[in-house]
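Weekly sync, protein design subgroup
Attendees: M.S., D.O., the rotation student, P.L. (late)

Item 1: inverse folding check
M.S. brought a backbone from last month's batch and wanted to see whether the design step gives back something sensible before we order anything. D.O. pointed out we never logged the input encoding, so this time it goes straight into the notes. Structure tokens as presented (252 positions):
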């Protein structure tokens, strides 16, 4: 009997973790108990109110305490940036504001020991993907640079508190949204050809959202469609960059 249980435990540990998005109402200290109560094996939370630009300064003591709670209970953490982020906007001020919002989430992630930070790329608002590529890359560099500066300003070095990777989430494909096609995401995740500041390969990753993929035309709800999608991930060279999957249903 003991051997059977041990085998089941080993088998489960070899499978991907199944988690949930958890409310932070009442503070980060409430997150782990909520996750454990529902049997979650991984946790995602918003970095701040997802529908507002307002953000609170990072509280290192609270966040490191949160990190301890997560580690003690073997719960990987992912932060999700706010919905207002638009790294592909033709509006320079909006891109700057978005980059700083991403930087805030990266700082929280560093202090809490997060496995990753998830963000939507945004919309080029009719300007075209090719024109948006340098905007997105510049915003990404700004976000990581600002996050490192913020950590240093608070006396936290990235050697001990490394920034988590930023995971670009697949989009629905509506309007001028960036990130609905794998070929576009592969371009954004690849090192730029021009000699501009470059992020290390481990700084970026990919988050797949099944509802978004379905809405964008990927038949991931069918075995053949899923196999074709996985083959495209591999062909585009981004399969190894998938760090998180949002398993969401679709009403369509």
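Designed sequence read out in the meeting:
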């Amino acid at each position: 009997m003991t051997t059977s249980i041990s085998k089941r435990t080993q088998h489960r540990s070899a499978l991907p973790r199944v988690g949930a998005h958890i409310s932070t109402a009442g503070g980060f200290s409430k997150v782990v108990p909520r996750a454990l109560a529902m049997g979650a094996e991984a946790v995602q939370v918003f970095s701040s109110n997802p529908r507002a630009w307002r953000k609170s300064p990072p509280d290192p003591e609270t966040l490191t305490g949160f990190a301890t709670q997560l580690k003690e209970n073997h719960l990987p953490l992912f932060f999700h940036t706010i919905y207002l982020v638009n790294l592909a906007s033709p509006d320079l001020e909006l891109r700057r504001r978005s980059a700083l919002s991403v930087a805030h989430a990266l700082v929280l992630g560093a202090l809490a020991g997060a496995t990753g930070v998830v963000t939507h790329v945004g919309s080029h608002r009719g300007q075209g993907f090719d024109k948006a590529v340098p905007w997105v890359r510049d915003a990404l560099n700004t976000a990581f640079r600002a996050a490192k500066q913020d950590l240093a300003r608070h006396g936290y070095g990235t050697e001990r508190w490394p920034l988590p990777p930023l995971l670009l989430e697949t989009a629905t494909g509506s309007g001028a949204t960036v990130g609905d096609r794998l070929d576009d995401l592969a371009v954004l995740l690849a090192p730029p050809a021009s000699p501009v500041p470059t992020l290390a390969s481990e700084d970026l990753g990919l988050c797949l959202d099944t509802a978004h993929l379905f809405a964008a035309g990927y038949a991931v709800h069918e075995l053949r469609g899923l196999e074709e999608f996985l083959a495209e991930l591999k062909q585009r060279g981004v399969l190894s960059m998938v760090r998180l999957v949002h398993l969401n249903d679709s009403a369509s």
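Discussion: Residues 48 and 56 are 8 Å apart (CA to CA). The radius of gyration is 19 Å.
Action: P.L. to compare against the previous round before Friday.
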